[in-house]
Design a protein that fits this description.
Elements lengths: L2 H5 L5 H14 L4 E2 L6 E3 L3 E6 L14 E5 L9 E3 L8
Parallel strand pairs: 3-4, 4-5
Antiparallel strand pairs: 1-2, 2-3
């Protein structure tokens, strides 16, 4: 997914993941930066972006919190594969 970025030098994978997520959702949704999590979408959904081992620990106390995880093929109730957000654009 990120092969072209690595060709140009050292890339911070966390930054790449968050940039991908923001790019895919900002086309049709409002993004904000909440106190907890990485993104607040449309004032309602809080997302934490990370790798396959990312947990929702930072989202405790958040009403509708989800993890968008890279490196997984399918999700669970609150963990969604990052690649699926590519279909939103």
């Amino acid at each position: 997914m990120y092969i072209n970025i690595y060709k140009w030098g050292n890339a911070d994978i966390g930054n790449v993941r968050e940039t991908f997520f923001a790019n895919q959702l900002s086309y049709r949704h409002q993004l904000e930066f909440p106190e907890r999590g990485d993104f607040l979408i449309d004032g309602r959904y809080v997302f934490e972006i990370g790798g396959k081992d990312k947990t929702g620990g930072q989202l405790k106390g958040v009403g509708e919190g989800y993890v968008a995880a890279d490196g997984i093929e399918y999700g669970t109730s609150t963990k969604i594969p990052l690649w699926l957000f590519g279909f939103l654009y």
